[in-house]
Amino acid sequence: MKEKFNFSKIARLLSxxxxxxxxxxxxxxxxxxxxxxxxxxLMVISVYTILITMTFDIKNYKYFKIPAILFILLIILKxxxxxxxxxxxxxxxxxxxxxxxxxxxxxxxxEQVPTVDRDTAQRLGSRKMGEMLELVSQYNVSDAYTQINYxxxxxxxxxxxxxxxxxxxxxxxxxxxxxxxxxxxDGKVELKxxxxxxKYSKSDKFSRDIYxxxxxNYPNDMFFEVNFEIDEEGTPYWVAPVYHNTIGWxxxxxxxxxxxxxxxxxxxxxxxxxxxxxxxxxxxxxxEIVQQLNWNGGLQLGFWNSLFAQKGVLQTTEGYNYxxxxxxxxxxxxxxxVGADExxxxxxxxxxxxxxxxxxxxxxxxxxxxMESAEGAVQEKGYISTFPILLNIDNKPTYFMSLKDxxxxxxxxxxxxxxxxxxxxxxxxxxxxxxxxxGKDITNLESKEDEExxxxxxxxxxxxxxxxxVIDGNTHYYFILENSNNIFIANIGVSExxxxxxxxxxxxxxxxxxxxxxxxxxxxxxx
Length: 527
What we know:
Elements: H1 2-27, H2 36-54, H3 65-79, H4 87-91, E1 96-98, H5 101-104, H6 118-131, H7 133-136, E2 139-141, E3 146-150, E4 153-162, H8 165-171, E5 176-183, E6 189-198, H9 210-217, E7 227-230, E8 236-247, E9 251-262, E10 268-272, H10 286-298, H11 303-307, E11 314-316, E12 321-325, E13 328-337, E14 343-351, E15 357-365, H12 367-377, E16 384-385, E17 389-393, E18 396-404, E19 410-417, E20 424-427, H13 430-438, H14 442-450, E21 456-471, E22 474-481, E23 487-491, E24 506-514, E25 517-525
Parallel strand pairs: 1-15, 23-25
Antiparallel strand pairs: 2-4, 3-4, 4-5, 5-6, 7-8, 8-9, 9-10, 11-13, 12-13, 13-14, 14-15, 16-18, 17-18, 18-19, 19-20, 21-22, 21-24, 22-23, 24-25
């Protein structure tokens, strides 16, 4: 009997480190006393340990004072880190520099205006995935759609992910073969084949789960959300910002380092903010930047002023968007008074790689007022406006937005003068709406500036693949002929027969090459 009892005692004692290991493996708390999750982990393990020791001697209940002390200490440290006691430090987590809109924001190149928002990018990505019959049964499209700059243009990138645990078991040796790139200017979707398949992702299991992989290699670091990005060569990476607290014990968390993990082989490198490679666009989280902007705008004159007198108190508007400037991604949001008077006192641009922040002081319409103004211009159609991006149109700050129908399809584009939101221009294309807004036909101006002799080419052949996509409100058709490696692009205006053309139809086309594109100028169906 004594020998059996000893075995039972040993088993119960061994269950303590076993539970600690299981909980750590599942919840992945950082081994860091500045992490709230780690304190909860410690208290759970201490309570379980005491319950086990009470099976040996009921008097061990007195050790419950240990998790009680930990809990009280946690509350004290948490309360001592709140904004009430450190208002100046919280206000200075982000530093705004006053700047000039005309000097910093170049006049928009109308061929480079991003017309594809996140929702539209998701629709385009899902449609593209639906065409890949060999992939769609095994993989889903991740909802990441990170906005970055790639090849000097704004795009959204997102990886494929395993379609459930069984599909992971069947495909884990090969990995994830593709990721999706959505061009935010023309809506072109590319299912990109990585040089090496992705072996570390959010949908992988066990040691190849990207969070578990990072935790094993960096057990003490605090990181939360990781972003999917690609470098200049198209190699997929996971970007994990590493947080350090800067105020009290639990307050003022801010990014101080970054871990880059190659998604194909799991190789990870930690960088300081200053040494991060230039191709990385998204280090700082948008929601956290907005929180820091609100602290900066609200706590400059102290905590109590932010609640009562509210002298000089500013806050961000409810939404935000992104701008691509000089190969960096910037967060844009307006700043308004706490009175919520439907107007902005200015707006900020925050570089999401460096956190450099510029404030542009100017009276302007609050974004949602501009959205309502655009919707009101076509109220009989019932279109819904996307959240605007801020452009420099004719050296004036101007809101640009898309107007969508109930199905989420872009029908029109709108420009709203940021300083006079009753001045609204509506158009079916970007060029059309800008021409209307500034009172000049920029289409003719641009065509004259870009005019140069082009050689008209001719080719005849059978169509082996054809796809359609809506760009600037117009349908364009991309197709490949059996006797050519080129991809041809035809606007719906080229021929009214385009919507009815299908694979195996024989066509005779005239086209010209420009900017590495083969644009069809004439099309004849030979049948």
